Amino acid sequence: MTQRVLLTGANGFVGKAVSKALLQRGDTVAGLVRGAQTAAEGVREWLFDGDDFHGLEGRWPMGMPCDAVIHLAARVHMMRETTADPLAAYRATNVTGALRVAAAARRAGARRFVFVSSIKAVAESSAGRPIAETDKPAPADPYGISKLEAEYALLEYGRESGLEIVIVRPPLVYGPGVRANFLQLMDAIARGVPLPLGSVHARRSLVFVDNLADALVHCTTDPRAAGQTFNVTDGRDLSVCELARALATQLHAPARLVPVPVGMLRLAGRLTGRSARVGRLIGELRLDSSHICERLGWYPPHTVEHGLLETAAWYRATH
Length: 319
Prior knowledge:
Blueprint: E1 4-8, H1 13-25, E2 28-33, E3 44-47, E4 68-71, H2 86-107, E5 112-116, H3 142-161, E6 164-169, E7 172-174, H4 180-190, E8 203-204, E9 206-208, H5 209-221, E10 229-231, E11 238-239, H6 240-251, H7 262-271, H8 275-282, H9 290-296, H10 304-318
Parallel strand pairs: 1-2, 1-4, 2-3, 4-5, 5-6, 6-10, 7-9
Antiparallel strand pairs: 8-11
Helix pairs in contact: 1-5, 2-3, 4-6, 6-10, 7-8
């Protein structure tokens, strides 16, 4: 059965992959975006420039019914924060804004709201075992705190209103169009830069963008997803060293990985004021994604190898 889906953040890296997956399924997709002609072909654009979705309910277009929402838009984690009160800024967009979208969508007839959260709502690292959805959350920064607060607020709104809420917590997402640290890693490997990653063996969960998109489509359609929280991963965790070697192979570049002891990397992080960044590079962050498999019968349709092949092919074609 096809559906009418509103997708916030439709013009983003993940949003375009989700749009493609929904359209291939035969769904009607409306993309809530700030700029014209930025969403994928086939998506009906709804231009809205209100800060933190203020006034969204009153400006809902006539003749645009909605069965489900996938809420991707967010104030994302920033390496160099310039706001005087970061937590307030994150809350305004990620908590209050998400609630405004949920309320407006419910009034337009939506039955389900899929909120794309982050594993940062729970933790920055795992300690010897993968993080499960039932683990006690302990977010470490304003972004993670705001995502967790949004989860709680949306679940409460769902209980009060009857809107079905689904929470999805991905780890690092990669694929064609990826930015930030993953792109920087590919840049360095492609240029043959020696990297001090040869001794980094802690494993980290990843999710290929098309695997995440497929999971989100399932979360909008499967009745068993209502009220659930899901970790979504590729199902296979790589160390940073393994990831770099795999990318080097796909990029047709040498893997120049220097075996610098992890303790020395931590020390360098402290001396340069980059302890948090180094910690994310060398620390373990594994997710247990068995719940979505057991509850929905969902398994990632693409392997890690396929995901890295697609990502590297995009990189070679565009850089």
